[in-house]
TrEMBL record:
It comes from Spiribacter salilacus. Gene3D superfamilies: 2-enoyl-CoA Hydratase, Chain A, domain 1, Lyase 2-enoyl-coa Hydratase, Chain A, domain 2. Signal peptide: none annotated. GO terms for molecular function: hydro-lyase activity. Pfam families: ECH_1. This is Enoyl-CoA hydratase domain-containing protein 3, mitochondrial.
């Protein structure tokens, strides 16, 4: 099974990439499986937060280079396959960003090329001290142009360009300093910490989380005045929701709110 799925009572769906023999590469089949699973989770009210983890020594090594090499044998030298693969990968990355539920990456081992893109596309990311990150396409004559989209939206321009131009591997600490991941956690504590953070987020109103996540990614692409106009409107609509009324009343009355997720 390429993707292991487990959901707990807190509403946390844990998805584990499980193709360690191929270093959890984003093959066509893996992308298909991820997309289908993410789509199902989006409409499942029992899922409140998603954790994306992996088995084996690699979180995700990017695209399957053997699959890419095989496609070169086609009459078009692989053009149709490459076009389909890049489009499919972009769809999955955008599905994570546009997903109504928060998505958290739990990274052990290496995350390279499209695997690094996968980490950057998640809303939060926690990593063990042995985790390593790189966009190493330049080593094989292939600039990591699509990973660059997610990378440049997470780290500074200079840091992103250094990774892209050199292909050098970053340590977990360096990745944290650059803003690619949130925190480095001791290996033996990583899963417990990630799941604790997921449970904390899952305890909030799912309506509020979905509203805020969508607004966050929308406003950051806008000019300042447009961003304030947009988020002001979002705040007004949010204030009129049942959970906002309940949350404010609970705060004033010094009690725990009871969310209806609406």
């Amino acid at each position: 099974m390429l993707l292991l799925s487990e959901q707990n009572d807190n509403g946390v769906l844990r998805l584990t990439l499980n193709d360690s023999s191929r270093r959890n590469a984003l093959s066509e089949q893996m992308l298909d499986t991820l997309q289908t699973t993410l789509e199902a989770a989006a409409s499942n009210p029992e899922v409140r937060v998603i954790v994306l983890a992996a088995t084996g020594p690699a979180f995700c090594a990017g695209h399957d280079l053997k699959e890419i090499t095989q496609a070169r044998q086609h009459d078009d030298a692989g053009r149709a396959f490459f076009t389909r693969l890049m489009g499919h990968c972009a769809t999955v990355m955008q599905a994570i960003v546009n997903h109504p539920k928060p998505v958290i990456a739990e990274v052990t081992g290496i995350a390279t090329a499209a695997g690094c893109q996968l980490v950057a596309s998640c809303d939060l990311a926690y990593a063990g001290p042995e985790a390593r990150f790189a966009t190493p396409g330049v080593h094989i004559g292939l600039f990591c142009s699509t990973p660059m989209v997610a990378m440049s939206r997470n780290v500074s321009n200079k840091a992103a360009m250094e990774m892209l131009l050199t292909g050098d591997m970053l340590s977990a600490e360096e990745a944290m300093q650059h803003g690619l991941i949130n925190r480095v956690i001791a290996a033996e504590e990583l899963t417990a910490y990630t799941m604790e953070m997921a449970a904390k987020i899952a305890s909030k109103s799912s309506m509020t989380l979905a509203t805020g996540k969508k607004a966050f990614y929308a406003q950051r692409e806008m000019p300042l005045a447009e961003a304030y106009a947009y988020t002001s409107e979002i705040m007004v609509e949010n204030m009129l929701k049942q959970d906002a009324k309940e949350g404010i009343n609970a705060f004033v009355e010094k009690r725990t709110p009871h969310w209806q997720d609406q």
